[in-house]
Structures are given as C-alpha cells and as structure tokens.
Amino acid sequence: MEMTRTTGLEGAREAHPAGCRHPLRVRPYRFRGDAEDPQCLSCAVLYKPVLRRAIYVALIVGTILTIINQGDVLLMGTLTPTVVAKILLTYLVPYSVSTFSDLSANRLVDTVAKGPK
C-alpha cells in the first residue's frame, strides 16, 4: 500500500511507502527518521532496524552466555536435545530483551492528561 502526499507549490504527488500495512490496527510505535506513520506491534517487531539490532545483540550476548553456561558440555561433545534447547533459549532471551527495550523506547505516550477519578 502506497500513500501519496503533496509537495511544494507545484502540487506534484510523491509516493512513499507507508509505515504500517495494517490500517485498522492500533499503532502505538513510532520510530525516528524512517517512518512517518506510527506502526502496529507486528510491523514494529519486523521493522528492519529493530530486527537487525535484536539479532546482533542475540548473537553476541547469546554466544557469550552459551560459552559460560554450556562451554564444558560443548567441549566434551556430549550434546543432548536438552542442551540444544537450553542453547536456543540462551539466544532467545537477549533477542527478546533487545526487541522489548526497543519497542518500549519508541512507544507513543498518551499526551492527554488524566484527571482524578
């Protein structure tokens, strides 16, 4: 879906990609620079800078934690399905934390002051 906007005095229409592909969803996330429109949760999670940063953090932190926690098992070569599951969770945790912190930092704050009940 492409949105158009009028630019300058000429009235020319310029096409630019929409920030969110889901027009009927609540859009509580706005990111600096790239997106003019707020984004819904699924578009925000799949937003390339958020995704790239989360993968980068997960690879670095997950590798360090895997070496600390499972290094002896990996060196001995006694890999079991349980250890593989633990290693996958070790990478999932920093990925989730990075994504959550990015979304929390870019969440739109309700600017309407709420009075007493």
Structure notes:
- This protein has 117 residues and is mainly alpha-helical.
- It has a domain at 46-105.
- 50% of the residues lie in helices and 10% in strands.
- It contains 3 helices and 2 strands; from the N terminus they run ββααα.
- It has a two-stranded antiparallel sheet.
- Helix 2 packs antiparallel against helix 3.
- The radius of gyration is 21 Å and the shape is elongated.
- The chain starts with a strand and ends in a 12-residue tail after the last helix.
- The model is unreliable at 1-17 and 111-115 (pLDDT under 50).
Low-confidence stretches: 1-17, 111-115
* Class derived from helix and strand content: mainly alpha
Q: What is the CA-CA span between the terminal residues?
A: 42 Å
Described by strand count, sense and barrel closure, the largest sheet is: 2 strands, antiparallel
**Continuous helix count:** 3
Radius of gyration: 21 Å
**Helical amount:** 40-55%
N-to-C SSE series? EEHHH
Proportion of beta-strand residues: 5-15%
Main sheet strand line-up? 1-2
β-strand number: 2
Q: What integer is the average pLDDT?
A: 76
Global shape: elongated
What is this structure's SSE topology?
Elements: E1 2-7, E2 12-17, H1 41-45, H2 48-76, H3 81-105
Antiparallel strand pairs: 1-2
Short description:
Helices cover 50% and strands 10% of the residues. The chain has a two-stranded antiparallel ribbon. Strand 1 and strand 2 form a beta hairpin.
